[in-house]
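ok trying again, last paste got cut off:
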Amino acid sequence: MGFNIGGLGDKIQGVVGSLKEGRAYELLQKLPLDKLPVEQLLQKLPLEQLLSSSFLQKFTPFESLKDLLQKGGFSAGSAEEIKSLPSDQLDEHVAKTTSFGSLKDMLIKAAEFYSQRK
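nice, full thing came through this time. structure:
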């Protein structure tokens, strides 16, 4: 059955196939990023593409995702590994070291940046 808050579950199911086919841009256009919990964003979004060095260098003091994570004291070195980190600690690190209020805010901006470049 799954979840279906106001049709959100159906919308997510419909775009997950797009992501699997490598159509990240289409996913970003359809997914209501601001309404999803950060944990779901981490699972659904193509983090490697969104948190690119070009995005991080433009909007944060970090050169790369690995740099952002290492300076936060996290052992993860890739976007895939972010999913296993405590989101509250990531939020705190992002809020302290960037202009974003949380990891979710940064992911939403990264999605906008990615979409504008496509």
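cool. The mean pLDDT is 77. The CA atoms of residues 100 and 106 lie 6 Å apart.
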